[in-house]
Automatic annotation (TrEMBL):
Gene3D superfamilies named among the record's database cross-references: Homeodomain-like, Jelly Rolls
PROSITE patterns in alphabetical order: HTH_ARAC_FAMILY_2
Protein name per the record: AraC-type DNA-binding protein
Stored Pfam families: AraC_binding, HTH_18
CDD domains, alphabetized: cupin_NimR-like_N
InterPro entries: AraC-bd, Homeodomain-like_sf, HTH_AraC, RmlC-like_jellyroll, RmlC_Cupin_sf
Source taxon at top rank: Bacteria
UniProtKB keywords: DNA-binding, Transcription, Transcription regulation
GO MF annotation terms: DNA-binding transcription factor activity; sequence-specific DNA binding
HTH araC/xylS-type domain span: 148-245
Species of provenance: Amycolatopsis pretoriensis
SMART domains (UniProt xref): HTH_ARAC
Length: 247
């Protein structure tokens, strides 16, 4: 049973060790989540979002979500009441954090949630988020058990080079059935889903300081060039530029 987590969550969580999981829950308020170090992976019924340091995750009120840390993760939280929450997207999202957005967010930590200074800073944060670019990398997650068996294998090893037919053989489903499920349930083909998964994981690898070449090899690309092309198409800039921006 999922319990309602009400106002009063601490603004600063205890640091999470690599791989720590926060079980599925929801709030009656919106929540902004910023990883000052490490990275936070947020999962909902609609998909999975990855937020390395310098990204802010938005979770609307009543959205059931769980979290997993990547690296030692220092998470800061900001409660967003119903009125300003209505100005933000109706679905979970990840935003690039400008310097102003980040500093206004961090300046709220430790102040009373209903204090005049916090309200003023929250208005700055929400105004910046309304104009901030949203990351396009939502990875849809399946509900069908046959499809989930396949995606679980790939989550465990994104570099797995198996074809859909081979994965189907391992999980007891036909390639035709799985291909249909990818299209009808996730609205994309198997190659597109696996590329999205690998690019999401690449954000984490690059955030840890791994080189572009090492990241490409670890995540199963045939060569760095094909990784750079896929990453740039989905993220909007090259992995080298992304890595430099977060150093």
């Amino acid at each position: 049973m999922i319990e309602l987590v009400r106002a009063g969550d601490p603004a600063v969580c205890e640091p999470l060790a690599h791989g720590d999981v926060v079980p599925a829950h929801f709030h009656d308020f919106g929540q902004l989540r910023y990883a000052a170090s490490g990275a936070l992976v947020t999962s909902t019924g609609a998909g999975t979002w990855v937020a390395p340091a310098n990204r802010i995750t938005w979770v609307p009120p009543f959205h059931v979500h769980s979290s997993r840390s990547h690296g030692r993760t220092d998470v800061r939280l900001l409660e967003v009441p119903a009125e300003p929450a209505g100005r933000l997207p109706a679905e979970p999202s990840v935003f690039a954090a400008s310097a102003l957005l980040r500093e206004a967010f961090l300046a709220t930590i430790g102040d009373p949630a209903d204090g005049p200074r916090t309200r003023l800073l929250l208005e700055v944060v929400v105004s910046e988020l309304v104009r901030a670019p949203r990351e396009p990398l939502r990875l849809p997650e399946p509900r069908d058990a046959r499809l989930k068996a396949v995606t679980d294998l790939l989550h465990a090893d994104p570099a797995n080079p198996a074809t859909l037919a081979e994965l189907g053989h391992r999980t007891g489903s036909s390639e035709r059935t799985l291909s249909r499920l990818f299209a009808t349930e996730l609205s994309m083909g198997f190659p597109q889903w696996r590329t999205l998964l690998r690019v999401q994981r690449a954000l984490l690898e690059l955030g840890e300081g791994r080189s572009v070449t090492d990241t490409a090899i670890r995540l199963g690309w045939a060569n760095p060039g094909s990784f750079i092309d896929a990453f740039t198409e989905l993220v909007g800039h090259t992995p080298g530029r992304y890595r430099a921006a977060i150093e």
